[in-house]
Amino acid sequence: MRYFLAVAEELHFGHAAMRLYISQPSLSHQIRKLEETLGTPLFVRSSRRVQLTAAGRTLLAEAPTALAALEQAVERTRSAGSGAATTIRLGYTPVANFGTLTTLLDALQDAHPDFTIDAREIFSAEIPERICAGDLDIGLALSPQPFDGVSGEILRKESVSALLSTRHPLCAEPTVPVKALRDETLLLFPRRLAPAYYDGIVAACQEAGFSPDICAFEDPPVNAMLARLSGGREIGLAPASFAEHAANLGTTLTVRDVVDPPIAADLSVLWPTNEPSPAIANVLATARHCADRHGWLRSPVA
What we know:
Blueprint: H1 2-10, H2 13-20, H3 24-38, E1 43-45, E2 50-52, H4 54-82, E3 86-92, H5 100-111, E4 115-121, H6 127-132, E5 138-142, E6 150-156, E7 160-165, E8 175-177, E9 185-188, H7 195-207, E10 213-216, H8 222-229, E11 234-239, H9 240-247, E12 253-259, E13 267-272, H10 278-294
Parallel strand pairs: 3-4, 3-5, 8-12, 9-10, 9-11
Antiparallel strand pairs: 1-2, 5-13, 6-13, 7-11, 7-12
Helix pairs in contact: 1-2, 1-4, 5-10
């Protein structure tokens, strides 16, 4: 197609061949192959002159845009393969939005300013599937279950905290033992959104001798869930970093550690097993550096 553009611009085979550093017969052959591929003549040829056909004029108008897009695609592909400038599609569970995600994004901006991070809020259970489908490059999921084709490691070890209204009776206590939740209604995300995390809470309650009364907040926007907790009738259970930041958003909520026993709420970073690209490797290295620098892997239980 580049040969055609040169000919179309010059409208003189000899001149074009000289500018492209190829022989005139070879150039003519390339042009005819292009015409055969397109199924239409691009030039009207005579012994004295060469003119563009209507199809040739159309291709002349469209080809530069197509070639520029192709060059851009090639450059982006090379950049992605080398770990240089690229776009990383990162899916994160809503509870990572406070603290963990912002810290990681800041670190990636400092370490890899050429990266564009396309961050998308997605519930934990969906993240491994989206990675396998090629919709995501990296995921931050709460207590994810094993998934074929997806590798992962714990990025942040946390325990569950109670998020409750300042008007709730348990607010007067320094901590909340699990057994104190016996007569309370727990406001949680539906089990299908983070099964292992949900099951861990239920198991801790059963070990304390009761089955918890759970209100599953269907399709829950986080802000609506926090507003509901402000009413004082329910208790939210969430990873400590999320609970602390949520409580700091206003004056109607407070946070208490859940103890006896503490309940794990581990946040993991996930990536496709069969695509260890340099860009993904760079993101993982930055995430591990964040975990080390901020002590995310230290046990949350004293």
